[in-house]
Amino acid sequence: MYVGIDVGTSMVKAAAFDRDGRELGVEARPVGLDLRGGAVEQDMAEVCAAVVAVLEALTARVPGPVELAGLTGQGDGVWLVDAAGRPVRPAISWMDGRAHELVDQWLADGTFETVFRRTGSAMFPGCPGPLLAWLDRHEPDALRRAAAAVYCKDMVFQRLTGAGRAVTDVSDASMPFLDPRTRRYDNGVVELLGLTGRRRLLPAIGDPIATGEASGEGLPAGTRLSNGPYDLPACALGAGVTAPGDGLLIVGTCLASLVATTELDLGGEPAGLYISTDRPGRLLRAMPAMVGTAALDWVLRTTGARHEELDDLLTAAPPGAHGVRVLPYFAPSGERAPFVEPGLRAELLGVCLESTPADLVRATCEGIGYAARHCLEAAGLTGSLAVCGGGTRSPAWVGLLADVLGRPLRVVEGEVGARGAVLAAAERYGVPLDAAAWTEPARTVEPDPDRAACYAKGYEEHLELLAGARERARR
User: Fold this and answer.
1) Are 79 and 149 in contact (CB under 8 A)?
2) Which residues form the Carbohydrate kinase FGGY C-terminal domain (predicted)?
């Protein structure tokens, strides 16, 4: 069997596949987030323990030797480790907002735009550049004790293989220090951010992705393991999004829009990033909005509704949600795609005593759909669109998204990131797998023409409301 490991923000999963791409079993364990006043951290020991637990449970339950394993996980943030790969301090999540004042400063003085014009990366508070600069000012001792500032999957790879040095891949390194033309760190960007003295912390880049053998913890000793790509490009691989112009929408904790491209355009409004892939010359134009299903989670929790009721709630309110509108920018660090606005916050509009929980839930799902449309347009979508993630478990929400986006959706089910991690590992090790069979969509959902026309007007109204919200965020 082939094993994919996906170390997510709130859930760690391991999935087993047969040679034809059929999912044989999945094991999952939740991991906690420590949220305090805009800071969002994770316990690295807890994350590693969850990885080992899901792998042990999976290999015990699903028969057969492990041919190879691929590793993926959440991107961005800062995971400081010592020379042995041990945590120096808790990991800082990509959702963290404590560095927003630095990003505001760089937006004002032109540093932000200069970095984008050099690397195609629009920094946000939870990416390594601002976080390392924040740590340099507030926790310099942690940086002195660290051997490397890695990413989530890199920390896990070092733990599972006992690798002697920290290593990442071109996809994780893409934000914000990698020059996508040379596929190496841009030391000029490091200097711009005041981090020349911390340059040693940037991990070596495995290009192509690094490989190693499992040491026996979680996976059988000697199992071939590859490190990367991180979860967004892994999902693109797992969904079969490789042809230029084709796109993927991931409806997860992060609402991520990706479009495959061979062109590098460093003009226009700085936003999102270009993700380098294991194939030189092939990029993903990414617009990873900060809040996806997390916004819906908050609304469901606040209204006392359960996730199991989502389809019924969406059916109970009509398109337009009786005039209720939600700008779904709930992240404490604001928004990063398709624009960067660290001070932006969510807004609920048109609510009155007659509004129902169903209205609020439907308006939230519509708002997330409008945000996705904004991101996909900015990313340059021209071809087919695949969709995956936890949000796609709701047929009613998938139908709503097809209507809001006004296009057919290829729904890819199962553990798409883990599937992509296996496909990347197979390519790296020269194991021939039928990628078309592995990435076959479960179904295609067509938009309803009348509802799509209604939502086209709603989208224009959304953009107008958003413009006002962005103005207020800057005051």
Assistant:
1) yes
2) 279-426
What span, in angstroms and rounded, lies between the C-alpha atoms of 305 and 298? 10
Residue 126 lies in a domain: yes
The count of structural domains within the chain is 2
CB 70 within 8 A of CB 225: yes
- Judge whether 77 lies within some domain: yes
Cα dihedral 349, 310, 31, 219 sign: negative
Per-residue pLDDT tens for 348-406? 999 999 999 999 999 999 999 999 999 999 999 999 999 999 999 999 999 999 999 99
Segment 107-143, tens digit of pLDDT: 999 999 999 999 999 998 999 999 999 999 999 999 9
Q: Cα separation of 123 and 94, whole Å? A: 11
Distance CA 266, CA 268 (A): 7
For the record, the structure tokens of 12 come out as 């760690």
pLDDT band at 283 (very low <50, low <70, confident <90, very high): very high
Axis crossing angle, helix 416-429 with helix 231-238, rounded to the nearest 10:
80
User: What is the domain range of residue 298?
Assistant: 289-411+445-473
Q: CB of 342 within 8 A of CB of 334?
A: yes
**Structural domain contains residue 85:** yes
Distance CA 346, CA 278 (A): 36
- Within this chain, do residues 305 and 227 fall inside the same structural domain, yes or no? no
For the whole prediction, is pTM greater than 0.85? yes
Last residue of a domain, one of 233, 251, 274: 233
Residue 191 resides in a domain: yes
Give yes or no for a contact between 122 and 336, defined as CB atoms under 8 angstroms apart.
yes
- Residues 425-435 have pLDDT tens digits of 999 999 999 99
Distance CA 220, CA 16 (A): 14
CATH number of the domain that 346 lies in? 3.30.420.40
Residues 177 and 297 in one domain: no
The set of residues, in sequence order, having a beta carbon less than 8 Å from that of 418 and lying 6+ positions away, is 3, 4, 5, 6, 13, 14, 15, 70, 72, 234, 238
Whether the CA torsion 120, 126, 127, 131 is positive or negative: it is positive
